[in-house]
Amino acid sequence: MIKELYIPLWGGLFLLIFVDLAILVYVAFTKLEEVEKYLKNSSEVIVQRRIWGGGVVGRIMRLTRVGGLLMHPEFYQKHGLVDIKEVQSMPRGLRLWVVIPGFIILVLCIAMFSLWAWDEVFPHVFN
Questions:
Q1: Is the pTM of this model over 0.70?
Q2: How far apart are CA 52 and CA 124, in angstroms?
Q3: Where are the transmembrane segments (predicted)?
Q4: Per-residue b/e over 28-53, b at no fewer than 16 CB within 10 Å?
Q5: Three-state SS across the chain?
Q6: What are 66-117's pLDDT values in tens digits?
């Protein structure tokens, strides 16, 4: 039974990752600038915008950095990279557009690693 699920599991994980990446690109091109406006005094955002620019990869990199900033604002505030009041002033819905796709990609990558590790540790299960 499990042998028949191996290929569909990998296929499903890849499909979900590509869908999530498409969502990340959508958010990077439709929501990122609005998010960055709320964090206009954040040195982290200013530096990342200058480093990565406005291409597809650059926007996704900026989005992931902003996602980390939104998930752990205390860390960034401790290092003087963001004003916590700016983070708190951002509407919750806008924050969720950034945080949820990043969290989903993390979960999917962990699932892929787990499936690979399971096959390495218990090769007789899937073969």
A1: yes
A2: 45
A3: 6-29, 94-118
A4: beebbeebbebbeebebbeebbeebe
A5: CHHHHHHHHHHHHHHHHHHHHHHHHHHHHHCHHHHHHHCCCCHHHHHHHHHHCCCHHHHHHHHHHHHHHHHCHHHHHHCCCCCHHHHHHCCHHHHHHHHHHHHHHHHHHHHHHHHHHHHHHCHHHHC
A6: 999 999 999 999 998 998 999 999 999 999 999 999 999 999 999 999 988 8
